[in-house]
Write a structure and sequence with these properties.
171 residues, Arc Repressor Mutant, subunit A, 2 domains, 80% helix, 0% strand
Length: 171
């Protein structure tokens, strides 16, 4: 009997890893801006999952994973901030000289990421969960503790601000 429960638990964890590892890495990377750190954060998230009883999370697995991932990412940022004494880390994208389209796309992506980083934290969070991680409004609601209506409002407001700022940049 205990062997069956262990097997079921392992299958449950494996399935959640299979389904959600990539979206969680993208989400963590959007917060910490570092691929390796994002992978570590997601690994910590799944280690925390292994300590949970499957019955406690039924129907809320996705929300739980994203909430724990978000908290782990913020903890990582706080730790790095304390260690670096406010030194800024700038990541550079290496692009071959002959790929001018790729350079322009990377610059556009960086500009959009800077605009997103300038939004209030609650708007950044819902933008990242929606567009980086592909979560539905209901899943974002569960992950953040906000109402579905509030999630929609925050997304609408954030996208309006981004659209306006991008138009100003183009002008």
């Amino acid at each position: 009997m205990a062997e069956s429960q262990t097997s079921d638990r392992q299958g449950w964890v494996r399935e959640l890893v299979r389904q959600h590892q990539s979206p969680l890495i993208r989400y963590a990377r959007s917060i910490v801006k570092d691929e390796h750190a994002a992978r570590d954060i997601v690994q910590e998230t799944f280690l925390s999952l292994c300590k949970q009883a499957p019955g406690d999370l039924v129907g809320h697995e996705v929300a739980w994973l994203f909430r724990v991932c978000h908290n782990n990412a913020l903890n990582r940022l706080r730790k790095e901030r304390r260690m670096s004494h406010n030194s800024e880390q700038m990541g550079e994208i290496e692009v071959p000289d002959q790929a001018s389209d790729a350079v322009e796309t990377a610059q556009d992506n960086q500009a959009v990421m800077r605009l997103i980083d300038g939004l209030p934290e609650n708007q950044q969070k819902v933008i990242r969960l929606r567009f980086h991680s592909g979560l539905a409004y209901r899943e974002i609601s569960e992950a953040t503790g906000l109402t579905v209506t509030n999630v929609g409002y925050l997304l609408h407001t954030a996208l309006g601000k981004l659209r306006s700022q991008m138009q100003q940049l183009d002008a």
